[in-house]
Specification:
With 137 residues, this protein is mainly beta. The chain has helices at 37-47, 52-58; strands at 7-10, 13-15, 18-23, 28-32, 60-65, 74-82, 85-90, 95-99, 113-120, 128-129, 135-136. The protein has a six-stranded antiparallel β-sheet with strand order 1-5-9-6-7-8. Strands 2-3-4 form a three-stranded antiparallel β-sheet.
């Protein structure tokens, strides 16, 4: 049954040469992104200003919704259904990726648009000087 949340969060990580994610609440483990979707995730990670090497090492948090939300990095448009999943595209740059039927764990029907934001899971600590000298995080 799809979630009733307006916004969803997954935490993809790099394994076996592609982005994958786990969601125990819906029974997914190492669910892979395939067929162009990894390049789309790389692009959103880049838009977020997150180093791709660090993102692949540490994973990222992806927030997504069928409605725009403050701070989203990319809008992706539904192109067509195929083999139970759906193709989505970005306009700039021109990327296309297939989202498998796992999408229906989050939506009752494939949204015409998805809005996505990437965030670092392990952001670098901000170092500030102390009034009496030295550094703290």
């Amino acid at each position: 049954m799809p979630t009733t949340n307006a916004m969803m969060i997954i935490a993809p990580y790099w394994a076996s040469g592609t982005w994958v994610f786990d969601d125990a609440e819906v029974g997914l483990e190492r669910e892979p992104f395939v067929a162009g979707a990894p390049a789309m995730i790389d692009h959103v990670v880049d838009l977020a200003g997150i180093d791709l090497v660090a993102a692949r090492r540490d994973g990222v948090r992806l927030l997504f919704s069928a409605s725009p939300f403050p701070g989203f990095h990319k809008e992706v448009l539904r192109v067509r259904e195929e083999l139970g999943g759906n193709w989505y595209r970005t306009e700039e740059p021109a990327l296309e990726g297939w989202l498998c039927p796992a999408l229906f764990h989050y939506f009752s029907e494939a949204p015409e648009r998805l809005y996505v934001r990437a965030e670092a899971l392990n952001p670098e600590p901000v170092r500030r000087s102390r009034p009496n000298g030295g550094w703290h995080e």
